[in-house]
Design brief:
single chain, mainly alpha, 4 helices
């Protein structure tokens, strides 16, 4: 054998080895691809099985959310009525002659009015804020302060 024949045979042998290696790699890739495809199909089937359950849970959560909003609205309405009644009582008390007499000369009246009290306010005409509960809490605190001030004045324990 001469050198050119030997060189050609050597190149063919190397080419064969390279082709075999590439074939093995392609076979491995094909197996991995099939495994991945199988896994993806299984996941897709699992998702299809779970979707109806998720949809029913979503609907249940939406119904509960609506129920909570309704309960919050009912609570706010109830508390609004109670606070309005307290505000009206304080306003009526301040309009009474005895209340005006006891409050005369006392800076407590100014304090009671500065904390947000308006005896002629009709709370049913008020526009609710974004957070109705926070507004009600604030109004309740204001009425509590006014009642506390009036109690101190009427019992003679001016603070």
């Amino acid at each position: 054998m001469d050198r050119t024949t030997l060189s050609a045979t050597s190149k063919d042998a190397n080419n064969q080895k390279v082709k075999k290696r590439k074939n093995r790699e392609c076979t491995k890739c094909a197996k991995k691809t099939k495994t991945i495809q199988h896994s993806l199909r299984a996941i897709g089937e699992e998702i299809k099985e779970i979707e109806p359950e998720n949809d029913s849970m979503l609907q249940m959560l939406q119904r509960k959310q609506l129920g909570i909003k309704q309960q919050e609205a009912d609570f706010c309405d109830s508390q609004n009525k109670i606070i309005t009644a307290h505000e009206n009582c304080v306003g009526a008390l301040l309009q009474e002659p005895l209340g005006q007499y006891l409050m005369a000369g006392s800076n407590q009246l100014a304090i009671a009015q500065c904390v947000g009290f308006s005896p002629n306010a009709n709370s049913d005409d008020r526009i609710p804020s974004e957070d109705g509960i926070a507004e009600l809490k604030h109004r309740s605190k204001m009425v509590d302060k006014q009642i506390e001030v009036l109690c101190k004045i009427f019992t003679g324990g001016q603070a």
